[in-house]
TrEMBL record:
Organism (species): Oldenlandia corymbosa var. corymbosa
Name the record gives this protein: OLC1v1005390C1
Lineage: Eukaryota, Viridiplantae, Streptophyta, Embryophyta, Tracheophyta
Membrane disposition: Single-pass membrane protein
Single Gene Ontology MF annotation: glycosyltransferase activity
Keyword Membrane appears in the UniProt entry: yes
GO cellular component, one term: membrane
Length: 369
């Protein structure tokens, strides 16, 4: 039943065959679910961003002319758990969404935290939340991100979403500039990740994307977030994304090779199976400490630790005399008024810490969370 929407209109016969292939391996699994209801990339970006001719569009589908956005509102959606680590990030993210939503240049519409805990938590009144079921216990094998595609399948099926487009975001995103709708009609917009390399993993990728579909370069180097996509397209892709991700996790070779980015490959492959190509926007977000300046970028993704000595020199891989790392706060939120970085630290890191401090200073009951 989960695959009810995943065939769409893309290569019907081939996708039916693919679905049957996936189905033999995952039938019992999916029935149970329904029953239970880089581094170098950053440096390259730095060098290009310093040039006057910097072009934020990495790649655009050939059939498109111009770069105009869709100029339509999108719904901001992020999947989350009810763990303290997830909750404090969601609170900061939602604070910055509210600040940016109505500024000139923003196409933000509504907001939903898609909570895949299966039960309410103490943020229900603070953040618009839609509760969905997690995967059955043990099914994610400790890889909690595997709940993300299943959460989107449920949300898209059950929720009333007014906007035509959806931004798939994550709790550790901070909006730093008003974000327009970067997609173009049926071509979603996505951020290119340097470590998603379908061509270099062709042997594995071909298990899920057969040669009949074309070259593996049809698979975009992306994850599901950040992505701005038509709701109708995501409704088709999401079940395939879930099925492919589950198949990948169930295959030891794939699981070992893709590791913590497995679900990202799942989305990239699922999109390609539906012949969906993304506009690759390297200005979609930055990732400190590797990206040094905010400029006109839209999102700070604070997934990497920021460690520096008091001379402002990066000590990545070694705990710095000054540091900001979200993993330092696994059991509870960071305190208000974090110390600012020492002189010489890149503007992106300074901006991030100031954004966190502003949010925590203005969110009621922060220290009690």
């Amino acid at each position: 039943m989960i695959a009810r929407k995943n065939m769409g209109k893309a290569s019907p016969l081939l996708l039916v065959l693919l679905s049957l292939g996936f189905g033999f391996a995952t039938y019992n699994l999916l029935t149970m679910v329904m029953h239970h209801k880089g581094i170098t990339s950053g440096k390259l970006a730095e060098s290009s961003e310093g040039a006057n001719w910097f072009d934020p569009v990495v790649e655009m589908p050939r059939e498109m002319n111009g770069r105009g956005g869709s100029n339509a509102k999108y719904h901001v959606a992020l999947t989350a758990t009810d763990a303290p680590y997830s909750k404090w990030q969601c609170r900061i993210m939602y604070y910055w969404y509210k600040k940016m939503k109505d500024l000139p240049g923003s196409d933000m519409g509504g907001f939903t935290r898609v909570l895949h805990s299966g039960k309410p938590d103490n943020l229900m009144e603070e953040i618009p939340t839609f509760i969905v079921d997690p995967l059955p216990e043990g099914l994610d094998r400790g890889y909690v991100v595997l709940n993300r595609p299943w959460a989107f399948v449920q949300w898209l099926e059950k929720a009333n979403i007014e906007e035509e487009y959806i931004l798939m975001a994550e709790p550790d995103h901070v909006f730093v500039n008003p974000l327009p709708n970067l997609s173009h009609g049926d071509n979603p917009a996505a951020f290119p990740f340097f470590y998603i390399k379908p061509a270099e993993n062709e042997k594995i990728v071909r298990k899920y994307y057969p040669e009949e579909k074309g070259p593996v370069t049809n698979i975009d180097p992306i994850g599901n977030s950040p992505v701005i996509i038509k709701k109708a397209l995501l409704e088709k892709i999401a079940p395939t994304w879930m099925n492919v991700s589950l198949r990948m996790k169930d295959d030891p070779e794939t699981d070992k090779s893709f590791g913590w980015v497995l679900e990202m490959y799942g989305y990239a492959v699922a999109s390609a199976l539906h012949d969906v190509r993304h506009i690759l926007r390297k200005d979609f977000m930055i990732q400190p400490p590797w990206d040094l300046e905010v400029g006109k970028k839209f999102i700070i993704h604070y997934t990497y630790g920021c460690d520096y000595n008091m001379k402002g020199e990066l000590t990545y891989g070694k705990i710095g005399e000054w540091r900001f790392d979200k993993r330092s706060y696994l059991r509870g939120p960071p305190p208000r008024n974090l110390s600012l970085p020492p002189p010489g630290v890149p503007e992106s890191v300074v901006r991030l810490v100031k954004a966190v401090n502003e949010a925590t200073a203005n969110i009621p009951g922060w220290d009690a969370e």
